[in-house]
Amino acid sequence: HGTSTINDQGHLEIGGVDTTALARDYGTPLFIYDVALIRKRAASFQQAFIEEQVPYQVAYASKAFSCIAMFQLADELGLSLDVVSGGELYTAIQSGFPMERVHFHGNNKSLMELEMAVEAQIGCIVVDNFYELGELSRICAERNVQMSILLRITPGVEAHTHDYISTGQEDSKFGFDLISGQVHQAVEVAQADGNLRLLGVHSHIGSQIFETTGFVMAVEKMFELIKHWREVFDFTPQVLNLGGGFGIRYIEGDTPLPAEEYVQKMIEVVKRQAAEIEMDMPEIWIEPGRSLVGDAGTTLYSVGSKKHIPNVRDYLAVDGGMSDNLRPALYQAEYEGILANRANEAPTDTFSIAGKCCESGDMLIWDLPLPNANHEDVLAVFCTGAYGYAMANNYNRIPRPPVIFVENGEAQEVIKRESYQDLLRLDVPLANNVAK
Ligand code: LLP
Fold first, then answer.
1. Do 278 and 319 reside in the same domain of the chain?
2. DSSP per-residue letters across 50-109
3. What percent of the chain has pLDDT over 70?
4. Can you list the residues of the chain whose pLDDT is less than 50?
5. Active-site residue list
6. Cα–Cα distances in Å, from 254 out to 208, 211, 244, 249, 334?
7. Residue 171: what pLDDT?
8. Both 134 and 273 in a single domain?
């Protein structure tokens, strides 16, 4: 997929760059991002809105993968940015990202984070609860400024990877629920508040979704609310934010829809519902994370030890694991991979790919067909661009890998490898070290 090919030497090439050369130059483990593929993914979401002439914002859900270079790329691509913490906001500020295109999410934003967002004059805060509504209003009043907000609702549509269920009883830590009437009260409070500009509503139904049904149901729920608000509060939202969650293909069995199809369906349903109540077409905002960067990312590992258990299994251990990719351990997530240096060789064996962390659960891939691999080889694991580096950690004091952007035959390091010194940066030795 993307710009991946196999070159004359039988090496995996991404963005016109030989991945084995990257492994040699930067060491392993190593994250590589195919920038052209990120461009293509962003354009498919945007193009679908442009074709239908619907006002929109595509906000990159930066939790999927954030760093200064990624935010600069998102800016260049005309994306907005969804941040969920002071740290992500700080990164956005430092990257020079236009603050008016930043949206701030979270179920428990701290006062410091709210102040930071107000002072940075970001585009919009997605308000999650009454506590936040009150504090945000106070913070704005103290500074005599206005802040645009969306209200996050729990639409009672819960997306489960392959299907969805409509939950009558909502049970989620996020947003205003629809059952208690809370959401109506929130509209009333926000509308009456001179410091808050209520733009509209937000819902996010889940992640790695392969169908449009859940989004359709969320839109329908929103319009039930909108009808009520127009009658009772004379309030018509100008923005409907339908969140992210568009699926990607990690393994052969995954069947996501093309980006355009999710967007077209959303537009179709919003148009129909708006027409029914003679409402102007609202702006539609979405927040893809995984589907913008997931399949653009590849992780390279060096093959190390092997363990053959007769009649049971062959383990092949690599120099990373749950420290750079938590998803298999956390969600039993599945991945595919090949040997980057022998990319044109047919598989002859089956290996289960083990990480190097001290946990039996630190397995990256079970039963992967590969050529007979040995410790000269480089394993490439695909589709690690979302929630890979973002959830990387220093378990076992393993330094986090570097991140390289590749495009048109050029490679650029955008995050450096952590060093052992970096690991000690925040350590404070005992004041009275009696051991010495
Ligand atoms: N908007 C909101 C409000 C969200 O909570 C999320 C993801 C997104 C957008 C982006 O969703 P995406 O398009 O990336 O699916 N760590 C998990 C995924 C957690 C997603 C949390 N929220 C994983 O590795 O699968």
1. no
2. HHHT--EEEEEEGGGS--HHHHHHHHHTT-EEEE-SHHHHHHHHHHT--GGGEEE--SS-
3. 97
4. none
5. 358
6. 10, 12, 18, 5, 10
7. 79
8. yes
312 DSSP assignment: T
Does 119 show up as a binding residue in the annotation?
A: no
Q: Is 15 in the pocket of ligand 1 (CB under 6 A)?
A: no
Task: Check if 29 has its Cβ closer than 6 Å to any atom of ligand 1.
Answer: no
* Cα dist from 385 to 58, 202, 289, whole Å: 18, 26, 10
Task: Name the residue range of residue 184's domain.
Answer: 54-291
Same domain, 186 and 301: no
Apex 289 CA angle, 288 and 292, nearest 5:
80
Contact status, residue 383 vs residue 297, Cβ threshold 8 Å: yes
- Pocket residue to mutate for ligand 1, from 66, 290, 325, most atoms within 8 A of Cβ: 290
Interface pTM, i.e. ipTM: 0.99
Give pLDDT, residue 1: 74
Q: What is the whole-number distance in angstroms between the Cα of residue 402 and the centre of ligand 1?
A: 23
Assign 179 to helix, strand or coil.
Answer: coil
Residues 11-31: pLDDT tens digits? 999 999 999 999 999 999 999
Total-model pTM: 0.97
Residues 311 and 402 grouped into a single domain = yes
